[in-house]
Amino acid sequence: MDNFNCKYCGSNQFKKTKIGQECLYCHAVYENDNDSNEIFIKNHKSQKINKIFLFIVGLIIFISITAFVFSNLTDFNSHKDKVTSSSTSSYKKTTSDSSSIDIKTDYDDNLLKNPDHSVKVAELSLVQSEIDLARASVKKYGGDDTKKFEKLLDEAQKEHDEQIKNRVVTPPKPDMIIDNPDSEFSITTYYREGGSLLAYNGDYNQYTSQDIINLWRQPDKVITDSDKIKKSLSIDFGENKHPNNYETKVLQEQWKGGKITWRELRSFILQINDSAYGTYSKEFVYESQGKPNVYFENDNVSYVTPILRYVYFPRLPEKYPKEGLGKYPDDFPSNYGMDGYYHEK
């Protein structure tokens, strides 16, 4: 591509593909039809009972370097993203009874055309609105697989209801924090397919700075400079794959220590990349104490280092192995086991 630089990484080195031009550095694909030149990102954050979907254009920059990040974290293979377009959409919450869903008015038809994708997202996240969306998708486009999809969604609904019934409202240990029980329930997970990328993460915005001090005592220091906070809240490696900051170090250690699954790992990385665009009032640093760093917006917790000893979030065992999930088998780490955890090879 003459006189053209990749808008994600700045490279001017491209190769031809069947659908357009692929950047050799970050693997962003520029389709021949430039009108659809966007990556679709759906990043979930819950606040109170309302579900908020954040479609952040700036996150594209970080998506384009995900392969590089994971080569450091997990020896991931880089892969190609098919660049697609999508407008910001909100899913209207409905009942789980598919007969009550008005497909024409409740959902944009573009959201319904891939029932296989919708069902997988519903199964992985157990978000009620995703289950409802998947039912609408199956009702209209399920075809010969309708019964199979409906069975999977019935199982997802049953699991969702069981999770809600047993949802943790009191921390398992006195010095732990938990996902906000007043937020819409979701499993912490990650999914990518065909350029569509989503991550579900919990909220801890019920906690204030005083709550954190009461739980974990005084921090090592308090940072209020926004540039320093953004530098802390990033994925950053130096030479020889050595983490340059606490967030990177913790994620790497927890992944290689078999404490978090690869979906949880990728979900946290996307959340960190997304959070880099937040407006933070301060950061509590607890690194010397081995506790999570805490980032605040308007004195409420916006992000917390996901150290499992101190942070509780909804989890499920790995549901899908490599076979059958997504269209990019190289989207899995090389040391990935069938249980979703890290295994030395």
UniProtKB/TrEMBL annotation:
Compositional bias ranges of the Low complexity kind: 84-98
Pfam families: DUF4947
Annotated segments matching region Disordered: 79-98
Superkingdom as given in the UniProt entry: Bacteria
Transmembrane regions listed in the UniProt entry: 52-70
Keywords for the protein's UniProt record, in alphabetical order: Membrane, Transmembrane, Transmembrane helix
This protein's name: DUF4947 domain-containing protein
